[in-house]
Write a structure and sequence with these properties.
This is MarR family transcriptional regulator. Keywords: Transcription, Transcription regulation. GO terms for molecular function: DNA-binding transcription factor activity. It holds the Pfam family MarR_2. Helix content is 64%, strand content 6%. It is mainly alpha-helical and 181 residues long. The chain folds into two domains: 115 residues, Orthogonal Bundle (Arc Repressor Mutant, subunit A), CATH 1.10.10.10; 48 residues, no CATH class. A two-stranded antiparallel sheet has the order 1-2. The longest helix has 27 residues. It is globular, with a radius of gyration of 19 Å. The termini are far apart. The model has no long low-confidence stretch (mean pLDDT 82).
């Protein structure tokens, strides 16, 4: 039986892909919210911790600017998430050895103690997303999503160069993409 939200409204154009991706994002957030409350972190904070788990400890100095560039989140968002994680005891800031103006981010014992459980929550959600998918379907889904992101990045570039009003974070995202290319 179809849910009411699956039926198009008369006279209205349906944006199926946009609608489905928004619904997926909301459901992922709800599932993570239901799994993470005992860890006192939000899914967004978990995403930052996941990034730090992958990059800290490899001898790499991690700064807020690096997280901003790699995750494509605004500086204000990164700053707020890092501040909350520091207040909750998950990370510390230290002066970077390479530059006294930079703050290096390090994980605390609490963060390291909870790493496995937090990773398991994110792994579980990804497993649920691909439940019933073959390995080829998983690979193809990731490739298609990657292409969609590239298409949106191209559309943002075209919008920027056409003189239309744009947000400053769009320029930063696209300049980072050009550096990678």
């Amino acid at each position: 039986m179809q849910q009411l939200s699956e039926f198009p409204r008369p006279g209205k154009k349906e944006h199926t892909v946009l609608h489905k991706t928004k619904q997926m994002t909301l459901r992922v957030r709800m599932l993570l919210d239901s799994m993470l409350p005992d860890k006192d972190i939000t899914p967004s904070q978990g995403n930052i911790l996941g990034y730090l788990y992958r990059h800290c400890g490899e001898g790499e100095t991690v700064t807020a600017t690096q997280i901003h560039n790699d995750l494509r989140l605004s500086r204000a968002t990164i700053s707020a998430l890092l501040k909350k994680l520091r207040l909750k005891g998950y990370l510390n800031f230290e002066t970077a050895e390479c530059d006294d103006r930079l703050k290096s981010i390090t994980l605390t014992e609490k963060a390291l103690k909870n790493q496995e459980q937090i990773d398991e929550c994110f792994d579980y959600v990804e497993e649920q997303l691909f439940l019933g998918f073959s390995e080829d379907e998983k690979k193809e889904s990731i490739e298609l999503l990657t292409r969609m992101l590239a298409n949106l990045d191209q559309a943002l570039k075209e919008t920027m160069y056409s003189g239309q009003k744009r947000h400053s974070s769009v320029e930063k995202i696209l300049s980072k993409e050009e550096e990678i290319s």
